[in-house]
Amino acid sequence: MSEPLALAVDLGGTELRAAAVAPGGQILAQIDTPTDATAGPARVIDQIVALIGEVRARVPDMTFLGLGIGAPGPLDPVAGIAIAPPTLKGWRDVPLTAILSDRLAMPVMLENDANAAALGEWRFGAGRGLHSVVFVTVSTGIGGGVVADGRILHGQRGLAAEIGHMTITERGGRCFCGAIGCFEAVASGSALGWRADAATRPGDGSRLRALAGSGAVTARHVADAAREGDAQASALLAEEARWLGIGFTNLLHLYSPEAIVVGGGLSVALDLMAGGIAATIIERAMPAYRDVPVVAAALGRHAGLVGAASLVLEPGSTRIVEAA
């Protein structure tokens, strides 16, 4: 008889993804759909229920341990409440696990989406076999999760490790949170794109503008141009690497992980920035922290789904299962 599976949902403001996941972390069935994020919680919950039904239909005759959900914060993972996620309109103190448990007739567990991705990489990806890992996603913003001594670090109401809002400089643009100098405001993919866009102009003959066409220059254009050998893009990536290195140094000093695992859209350029990140860490970190590897995430965009599934692979346990 096949082992029971876990159901998983990655709830984003743009995309809603559901999957059936085997105990070893393999995704056996997956369905994605745009999130109806402006329609309120009732509509999105209906979407989740419908997707779960479709996923279950793709793996007939299988049993399920329950459903794990990775969702944007702030949220309370213990109470199972979505407090006020800014990417989902009208969501305030929504008892998501209670509602879905009732409608699906199965156990449901909730976790911050960055924490879920951290769990996925720790249990089944680049952090497998380690006890302490910091996962950093560098994309539109910067988020992350911390596994410390075999446990996700939650803090009060699950709000710990909001690493994108560490203050690392007194300059830079204003962050969406209202502060100046946040890690996210200077080192995210969005920030890199803004710097590249400001450094070029339409029709200037630059490779960055050629790649961007009639639109704005983005971090992806910078990475692509740098991989082609473009000097301007390479200089922009070198600056990005320094900002990341400064932030990573703070994370090393704060959490003392065995590895920093980097995911998100900008991780595709990690190999191009590795030297600059390492040089900054060597320059700024205390000697005991300098040999910690900075590695690319192994699960890609599946990390959140696999991590959410892992929430229910050990039913009733408040301690995360030790990595194999």
Automatic annotation (TrEMBL):
A GO molecular function held by the record: glucokinase activity
Transmembrane segment boundaries: none
Keywords: Kinase, Transferase
EC number, as in UniProt: 2.7.1.2
InterPro entries per the UniProt record, alphabetical: ATPase_NBD, ROK, ROK_cs
PANTHER family: BIFUNCTIONAL UDP-N-ACETYLGLUCOSAMINE 2-EPIMERASE_N-ACETYLMANNOSAMINE KINASE (PTHR18964:SF149), ROK (REPRESSOR, ORF, KINASE) FAMILY (PTHR18964)
Similarity remark: Belongs to the ROK (NagC/XylR) family.
Protein name per the record: Glucokinase
Organism: Aureimonas pseudogalii
